[in-house]
Amino acid sequence: MTAAALRVAIACSGLGHVQRGIESWASDLARGLRRAGVAVSLFGGAPATDVIALPCLKRTGRANRLLTGTFRHIGGWRYGAGSPYEIEQSSFSLSLWPRIRRGFDVLHVQDPLIAMVFERAHHMGISAPRVIYANGTGEDGNVMRRFGNLQLLTPQAREEWQAPPDQSVFMIPNFVDTTTFTPGDRQSARARFGLPTDKVIVLCCAAIRRVHKRIDYLLSEFATIPRQDALLVVAGGREPDSDAIIAEGTRLLGDRVRFLPDVPREHMPELYRAADVFVLASLYEMFGIVLIEAMACGLPVVCHDTAGFRAITGPAGNLCDASVPGGLAAGIVALLDPETRSAFARRARLQAEQQFSETVVIPDIIAMYRSVQMRSD
Description:
Layout: E1 7-12, H1 21-35, E2 39-44, E3 52-53, H2 62-71, H3 84-100, E4 106-109, H4 112-123, E5 130-134, H5 141-144, E6 149-152, H6 155-160, E7 168-171, H7 186-193, E8 200-205, H8 215-223, E9 230-236, H9 242-253, E10 257-261, H10 268-273, E11 277-279, H11 289-296, E12 301-304, H12 307-313, E13 317-320, H13 327-334, H14 338-356, H15 358-374
Helix pairs in contact: 3-4, 8-9, 11-14, 14-15
């Protein structure tokens, strides 16, 4: 069976109007599979390059907010209407079904509700493609057990998961295009973003929010670092509390911090090239695509010491205890030393190429598709 014999649908309701790891995963996966000769259709909730845009009630839209407020009081969570994100997924699924119910072998998704809708539809005989759910959002066992085909992203997740007897489980990580995310001219990259050429730039790429991404913690940690030649740059999507965090950071750090909200994905490789160090303040991620993007661009990484992060960063990660005051700051300070930083940077690019490049990961994804395609229901 050849790759060309596969017909794959990749779907993500936020694609085209939201910037998160899931959206990056969907667009990158489609491009990588196409380069490998797989027939792929990429579906999203808004127009974007190479995306088939489908109508849905976007999570940021007024109609969605009104429906969320109404359904919250009548148990909307029971039927896919318990939050703006759930309503977006439910409405997107209605638009997606007539487009993929025939002619596809596999539907690959990370949005959990979309995956559940089409898993049920497949077992009812009204949707042909078999569903592969990649657990990139950290859903619990009650959700993960619902799928016949489950993709886990780290060895730790695979070791911890006790699969039901009828479930096929695949451990395949996310990947990075190491020809796009690559080291480059740091000074020209800084000029593009208006960043100073005489600073050691510590970059964080994450949604500008307190919960989970802990940008407020990062700001307070950076404020304890006495080095005036170090500049913190925070780039990420806007959230409801972003303006308050930006104001807080400006009061705390003054000109030692820059915020770059909503940088388009196509400009991200250049932003990584402008930096010297990459830092992630969250205590957990199901994977953390930004880590492998940063490493591919030759950036040493500072992040919390967990088995999952350790498996991703390998020798390129300066892992610390970011759960305690001073932990993250100590990790950053260690990489402000030029010799230490240079040694970590060399290992970063190698780690990305050897473990997470397209040439390493895409063949495993295609093999997963073939296995699922041949599986009997």
